[in-house]
């Protein structure tokens, strides 16, 4: 039953992401790790030139282009949306033709057949997994011993706070990790998205249970004050982000030798 439910969620999320792909062409991408310009000052990837990478939820391929321009040796890009993969292919046409970039249309929950890489990363993509245990196990298997896994996402506490009656209030329970359906997501009639909001403690435990060493955890303050973020009623509001963390970033390491 669990697999049937997960497969249904994946199938519906695929359709959803194909429908909204054009809205995310210029979404947050390296060296930025999320909204408000966060993360570019953290220097999370120690070395790019000559190294190999896998991006989970590569979207339109902007982060891939950044790494190629910095001298990356090889980059794999994985995304659920066929339209996103096609956009990433066009955006990195030369690197794809030369073999420096390989793009894969598929789910993060399915094991890929790729050579081990130095770094796996994801900018605002991991939380879309319908099976984090399998996803983290897959990512662990893709890394060379000593390899790095870096990923970012909305802080769950930020998600629980909303603007009502001229003030920010705690709208939802931080402890509630029930899977939800975002109905008519991005104002697309009939387009639904499946997602689960998990506590930070849950993410820590899932990563440690997989075998990762967590070498860094960040809750950056907003770095930009663009006009599009001024409205306090918007989900991404500068005022809100200055009160509670908008994003978190995990930096993890695969040990040189598996413990136990």
Descriptive notes:
The protein is α/β, with parallel strands linked by helices and 260 residues long. It has a single domain, classed as Rossmann fold (3-Layer(aba) Sandwich). It is 29% helix and 24% strand. It is built from eight helices and eleven strands. The protein has helices spanning 2-20, 62-69, 82-91, 93-98, 132-142, 156-160, 200-210, 238-243; strands at residues 52-56, 74-79, 101-105, 117-123, 143-154, 161-164, 167-170, 180-182, 193-195, 213-218, 247-253. A seven-stranded mixed sheet has the order 3-2-1-4-5-11-10, with helices on both faces. A two-stranded antiparallel ribbon has the order 6-7. Strands 8-9 form a two-stranded antiparallel sheet. Strand 1 (52-56), helix 2 and strand 2 (74-79) form a beta-alpha-beta unit. The longest helix is centred in the N-terminal third of the chain and has 19 residues, at 2-20. The radius of gyration is 18 Å and the shape is globular.
